[in-house]
Amino acid sequence: MCGLSGEIRFDGSRPDLAGVERMTDRLAPRGPDGRGLWSQGPVALGHRRLKIIDLSDSGAQPMADPRARLVGVFNGCIYNYRALRADLTARGHRFFSDSDTEVVLKAYQEWGTSCVERFHGMFAVVIVEQDSGRTVLVRDRLGIKPLYLAESPGRLRFASSLPALLAGGGVDTSLDPVALHQYLSWHATVPAPRTVLGGVRKLPPATVRVVEADGTCRDHCYWQPSYTRRPEHAGLSAQDWTDAVLQALRTAVRRRTVADVPVGVLLSGGLDSSLIVALLAEEGQEDLATFSVGFESEADEEGDEFFYSDLVARHFGTDHHQLMVPSDRISQALDGAVLAMSEPMVSHDVVAFHLLSEQVAKEVKVVQSGQGADEVFAGYHWYPAMARVPRRRAAEAYAETYFDRSHADLARMLEPAVLPSHDVSGDYVRAHMAAPGAETALDAQLRLDTHVMMVDDPVKRVDNMTMDWGLEARVPFLDHELVELAAACPPGLKLADGGKGVLKAAGRRVLPREVVDRPKGYFPVPAIKHMAGPVLQRVREALSAPEARTRGIFRRSCVEELLAAPDTHRTRRGANALWQVALLEIWLQTHGIR
Known about the structure:
The structure is a single chain. The chain has 594 residues and is an alpha+beta fold. The chain folds into three domains: 3-221, 4-Layer Sandwich (Glutamine Phosphoribosylpyrophosphate, subunit 1, domain 1), CATH 3.60.20.10; 231-377 and 444-527, Rossmann fold (3-Layer(aba) Sandwich), CATH 3.40.50.620; 531-590, no CATH class. Helices cover 41% and strands 16% of the residues. The strands form three sheets. A six-stranded antiparallel beta sheet has the order 2-3-1-9-8-10. α1 (17-26) runs antiparallel to α4, α6 packs across α20 and α23 crosses α26. The longest helix has 18 residues, at 238-255. The radius of gyration is 23 Å and the shape is globular.
C-alpha cells in the first residue's frame, strides 16, 4: 500500500519542496486515494495513500505524533498491528486512529529501532525524530517493499520507486558498470544496494539505517536465517515437516487477510497460488475473488494454464475472473509495463502481471500471490544438481548452473568503457557463498536466491506491476517465519518429488491431486519469448535509435548479430539474449535517460 518520498538536507539549507512534490506526484499510481506533504527544518516528507487499513482520514500520511515528536511515512502492511496495538495500549500509549501506521510510530517510541523485530509484514518506513534531527529508514526482511535512495553533496533523497527519484531531478544517471555486469549475468537482477544507475541505490532488505542530522549514518541488518539444521528440529519425520510447513503456511495466509477491504488471489493454477486459495477456503472465506491471465499461443507454445486455474476455481467455488490477452495487445502494453519498472526487468511475465493488475484493480485493492515458493522450497529444476556438489564448490557450481554468461562472454558484448576489469558478478557470488552458515551447497544457493536474487527479480516485479494500478500484492510464501522454517528443513525433503517435495505433500492434503502432480508450469508470454512481430519491431527501433548508438553500451557487431537472428541466440538459461539487451535500452529511453 502507498508510496513515500522525501529529502533530508545536511548543509543547513531547506529541502527542495518542489522536488519532493514532483516525486510524490510520480508515485500517484501507488497511492490514488490520498496525498500528503510535511516539512520542518531540513526534512520534507511526501506520501501517496492507498486505503487498505483504516479507511478514514485519520490514517492519512505523513503522520505526526505530537507527544512523541515523531513524524513518519510508511508503505506496506503490518499484519499483526492489532496485537501490537493492544500491547502498546497496555503500556500506556493512546491512539487517535485505527491504522497500522500509527502502530509503527508508537512501536518506535516504545522500543526504538528494535521495534522492527516485532513486525510481521512487508514495509518500508521512514521516521523523523523532530527533536534530535535523526531519521530512520527501514526495509522489511525479504525486501518486498522497495526504498530507493539518491545521495548528493549535503542531501539525501528517498522514494518508493526509482522513477520518482528521477522526477525530483538532480540524479546521476550514468550507468554503473558493476550493476550492468550483474544485469547481464543474472537475467536482469541487480542486488541491493546497486541499481543500473550510478546515482541511485537501494536500502538492502532487513536493514535499519539511522541517519544523523549531520549526515553520518549506520546500518544494522536485523534478520538472516542461518540455513542450518536446528537442534529443535532433530528427529522430525517427513510427516512432521509436512505438518509444520502446512501450519506455517496457514498462519501466513491468514495474516495476509488483514484489511478493511476485500482480499482476492492471483490464481495461476500452479501449486503455490492454488494452495493459497485452498487455505482461504479452509478458513471459511466466501465469495473469494480469483484472477487468471493467458495469452495466445506462439510457435506451438501454449500461452495459458486456464485448465488448472479453472479446475481450482470450480473446486473451491471462487468468483473467478479469466483474462485472455491477444498477442497484438502485448506490444501495445509493453511500454506501459516498462514505464512502471523501477529497474529493467526481462522476465516474460512482467507484461502479463501489468495487464492482469490493470483488470484486477477494477475489482479489488488487495490480492495474495504465490511468488517466492520456488526459491524458498527449492522448486526449480537446477536445484538437484547443486545438492550433489561439495560445499567448497558451491560458488563455482552456482556460476555454472545459474549465470546467463561468463565474464569472457560479456567482454565480447560490451564496449570497453562499461566493462569491469574482472568478474565482479563472480566475486559477489563467491563472497556470498563463503559467508558463515548454510551447511550444504544447496543451502548456500537457496540463501542467495531467497535473500538476493528473488528480492530483485520476482518480488520487485510483482510490486512494480501491481502497484502501478493501485493494487497491493501480498506474498504469504515470504512470511519470515515460514522462510525460517523452510531454511531449516532438510534439503532432501525440499528436493523430493521433483522439487518442493514437502510443499507438495502439504498440497495433497488440501488440493485435488491433479493440481499437485501436474508438470511444473511457468507464466508463458510466447510473443516476447519468441520475438514475435510487433515486439520485435519495437526492439529494432530501440536498438537503432540515436540514443542507443550514442550511449555505446553494446558492441555494434554484437547488436547486429542478435538482430540478424532474433530467436536464435540464447543465454545459458535459455532466455532470449536479444530481449535482455533490448529491454535495457527500452527502459533507459522510456525513462528519459540519455
